[in-house]
Amino acid sequence: AQSVTQLGSHVSVSEGALVLLRCNYSSSVPPYLFWYVQYPNQGLQLLLKYTTGATLVKGINGFEAEFKKSETSFHLTKPSAHMSDAAEYFCAVSEGNRDDKIIFGKGTRLHILP
Amino acid sequence: GAVVSQHPSRVICKSGTSVKIECRSLDFQATTMFWYRQFPKQSLMLMATSNEGSKATYEQGVEKDKFLINHASLTLSTLTVTSAHPEDSSFYICSAPGSNEQFFGPGTRLTVL
Fold first, then answer.
1. Which residues of B touch A21 (CB under 8 A)?
2. Residue of A44, A89, B32, B68 with fewest CB within 10 Å of its CB?
């Protein structure tokens, strides 16, 4: 069975500082990995995804994530935080089949301090 | 990109009534759709996999007689919450697989009084 662990339900960073949101996964097969962002009372927006190939994945809004198989990790980073980045972030995993269900982590609320 | 819509976006109902939520893939066909539930300040929990032309597959702990799923066409899946109770109040989100990713609907906020 697949699972996702997000370390830290809340993360606070100062505006302009590095953002690091941690995600570790468990999967018995090569996984597809995702990061989604959710603003209050809204649906999910895909930030980035890893399927195959290059392990450093660049997404929207300046975010990127690196797939590290040896560490079973897929941490999300952004060099400089903006106030608009304040939101809930979800790491997710699927088994890579196009029609496969996605399993979400519990989420990390990112707070940006002025 | 591909779009998934949900209707209604918000619904308030009395306890004991049934509520139907629609999920549509607007510009692509989806033989499979997924239904998730999200409680306030919590993650998305997969409820069931909706399969066009066949029965839905429910996750462990989800009552199939309470959450009825019908996938009548390649672009429409419906979730009916039967005999709703206040504890069913939640944010319900559907998704459909596209060419290389899942596309999520905007969600439906259900409030049961």
1. none
2. B68
CB atoms within 10 A of CB B70: 15
Residues 17-46 of A with CB under 8 A from B: 34, 36, 41-44, 46
pLDDT under 70: residue ranges of chain B = 1
Q: Is the sign of the CA dihedral B61, A106, A44, B86 positive or negative?
A: positive
A96 interfaces chain B, CB cutoff of 8 Å: no
Q: In whole angstroms, what is the distance from residue A58 CA to residue B24 CA?
A: 29
Selecting from B46, B101, B105 the residue whose C-beta is nearest the C-beta of A103 gives: B46
Which residues on A lie below 8 Å from B94 (Cβ)? Answer: none
Question: What is the average pLDDT value for chain B, to the nearest integer?
Answer: 92
Average the pLDDT over A17-22 and give the result.
98
SS3 B94: strand
CA distance readout (Å), A70 to A73, B27, B93, B95, B96: 8, 39, 33, 31, 31
Q: Token pair for residue A63?
A: 């975010």
The dihedrals phi and psi of B16, each to the nearest 5 degrees, come to 100, -15
pLDDT tens digits, A53-80: 899 999 999 999 999 999 999 999 999 9
User: Where are the alpha helices (H) located in chain B, listed in sequence order?
Assistant: none
Reduce the secondary structure of A53-72 to three states and give it as a string: CCCEEECHHHCEEEEECCCC
Q: Please say whether the beta carbons of A88 and A109 come within 8 A.
A: yes
